[in-house]
Every structure is written in structure tokens, then in C-alpha cells.
Amino acid sequence: MVCMECGANAEKGYTTSVSDLGNCLLIVRKVPCYKCTECTEVIYTGEVIKRLEEIMERAKQFTQEISIVNYNSAA
Ligand SMILES: [Zn+2]
After folding, report:
1. How far is the CA of 55 from the centre of ligand 1 (A)?
2. How many Cβ atoms from other residues are within 10 Å of residue 65's Cβ?
3. Using alpha carbons only, what angle is made at residue 31 by residues 18 and 70, rounded to the nearest 5 degrees?
4. Could you report the per-residue pLDDT of 48-70, keeping only the tens digit for each?
5. Is residue 40 domain-resident?
6. How many whole angstroms from 13 Cα to the centroid of ligand 1?
7. Domain range for residue 55?
8. Considering its fold, how many domains does the chain have in total?
9. Is residue 75 part of a domain?
10. Spacing, Cα 10 to ligand 1 middle (Å)
């Protein structure tokens, strides 16, 4: 995988995704991604983006102000 920002090599890793859904702050831990070795760019594959959107949809029904879920256990 190559970084779209700077063209450097991006390595496989994990990141924490933070999304502000308005009524709730969603934190998804251990999200698989590619991290650029030169800049701060983080790249998600299409599959991961789709899954994050599903998790966000579900999180909108949560009543907590802050929700922390693990990517793998958020089935
Ligand atoms: Zn980069």
C-alpha cells in the first residue's frame, strides 16, 4: 500500500478511530489500517470503511455520550 498524501510506503497496523456522531462520541479501537511511514496519513481499506459505517449506525442508538468499542468485537 502506498500513501496517497506523500507516496511513501504505508505499513499494515492498527489505529483508534474517533468519530463525533453529534449526540455521542464513538471510539473504535484496534481498527486495521495502513499507516504511512513518512507522514501521519492513515489509510483504511473499503471493507474497513464499510464496517466502521455499520458500527457508527449502531452507535447512534446508544444512549451513552461516549462509546468505546473494539473493532473485532463490535459485531
Ligand atoms: Zn505519507
Report:
1. 27
2. 8
3. 80
4. 999 999 999 988 888 889 999 99
5. yes
6. 14
7. 10-70
8. 1
9. no
10. 7
